[in-house]
Amino acid sequence: MEEKKNLHSVFSNGLIKENPTFRLLLGMCPSLAVTTMARNGLGMGAAATFVLVGSNLVISLIRKIVPGKVRIPVFITVIAGFTTIVQMLLAGFLPEINKQLGIYIPLIVVNCIILARAEMFAQKNGPLASVMDGLGMGAGFTLAITLIGSVREILGAGTWMGIPVTAKLFDPAVLFILPPGGFLAMGFLIAAFNKLADRKNPKDETREEAGCAAGCPGCSKAMHGGEA
Amino acid sequence: MKELLAILIGAVLVENFVLSKFLGICPFLGVSKKTSTAVGMSGAVIFVLVLSQAVTWLVNHYLLVPYELEYLQTIVFILVIATLVQLVETFLKKMIPALYKALGVYLPLITTNCAVLGSALLFVERNYSFIQAVVFGFAAGLGFTLALILFSGVRERLETCDIPEAFKGMPITLIAASLVSISFMGFASLILP
Q1: What is the pLDDT of residues A149-205, one digit of tens each?
Q2: Is residue B158 part of a domain?
Q3: Scanning every residue of chain B, which has its alpha carbon at the shortest distance from the alpha carbon of A189?
Q4: How far is CA A36 from CA A62, A160, B29, B80, in A?
Q5: Which residues of A touch B31 (CB under 8 A)?
Q6: For residue B7, what are the domain limits?
Q7: What is the ipTM score, two decimals?
Q8: Size of interface A-B (CB pairs under 8 A)
């Protein structure tokens, strides 16, 4: 029972409290690039979740036999392997989504979320917990980028998942499906998340510049340290 | 020659890597707080991009394509880039300490810069020749530099502004980036004949 509760909290952690996109500010490139439509966000989220779960599982299984000094190159190879699998699966079964997401599928390799979870969670925990962490983080990422995609699609094209929803309420602002709209929607959504989090927990000071500023250079530094 | 110029202007202005392709967002947001660090990072990125374009093109053309191993591109490219960054760092440390001092701290951050892997994947997609791929890498780096330095100027001014609590930090930075990105859309009509 204790174990079960623990796994549950590992899963829900990634969903809201440590949402990789809105709270940890990791993986900004795909969050901005592919979110012109809700469906693309969903596709990207599913692909990244697959890689995240797979690499977390494998890394957790081999964590005791990989020497500390070469762990980062090993992690990257594992992640690149899973990315290649997902790339081939998409090309084979969902060619349309694959075409839409283009080079951002292979770019999952350099998505900070995955290396950060390998480094921060999978190499310290057992396989079951690591899979749950992968699922939670993946779900949080999927939720976040689908949300951004929905906002941009509704405002920019007046549709959601391809279905017209705004009818004649307002003219779609094309800006939102163009690159500047990505930055704009993301900025306002993070601000909204901050506002909500501050109301709930006013003493939380962790958010300030926690992510990209610290996150990506953080994981690159780890990578560097691993190879030296 | 005209083709190369088109690639150059295309990658710097029309489809700027950072502002319209969203490649290299992390360093763009991470190191653009001060113009001086922005310059250092840009130098390191241009340097590594040109080198990695040359090496990955050769590896792709003479190893992966002849043996029909194209499906290994992602794995091979990222390993080549990681190794290259490490080699460049060791080499500069020993041979050109002055340059190492200027670029050193930024070099390790480049492996996970998606602009580097992204431009390697793009030259495959677009079937570029060796020269085209290298020029493309240089132009991508130049575009990154332009965006980073322009944006660091904007951010230095943001420091002194009175911003609502919830917007402090990343949100206002993203909104500023959006405005810079809008200004770059003006270049969209700049297509060479």
Answers
A1: 999 988 888 888 877 877 767 778 888 888 889 899 999 988 888 888 777 665 544
A2: no
A3: B171
A4: 38, 11, 21, 32
A5: 217
A6: 2-153
A7: 0.83
A8: 154
Which residue of B86, B109, B117 is in closest CB contact with A227?
Answer: B86
Q: Is residue B115 part of a domain?
A: yes
Taking an 8 Å cut-off on Cβ atoms, the answer to whether A188 and B171 are in contact is yes
A88 forms beta bridges with none
| Domain count within chain B | 1
Secondary structure of residue A164 in the 3-state scheme: strand
Q: Indicate the residue of A107, A184, A217 with minimum beta-carbon distance to B178.
A: A184
Give CA–CA dist A11/A39, Å, rounded: 24
What's the whole-model pTM score?
A: 0.83
Six-digit token string for A165: 């929803």
- CB-nearest to B117 from A28, A107, A215 is A107
H/E run at residue A163: strand A163-164
Strands A159-160 and A163-164: antiparallel
Say which DSSP state A1 is in: -
Task: Check CB contact of B10 with chain A, cutoff 8 Å.
Answer: no
Q: Which residue is it, tokens 């969209």?
A: B188
Q: What are phi and psi of A160, to 5 degrees?
A: -135, 120
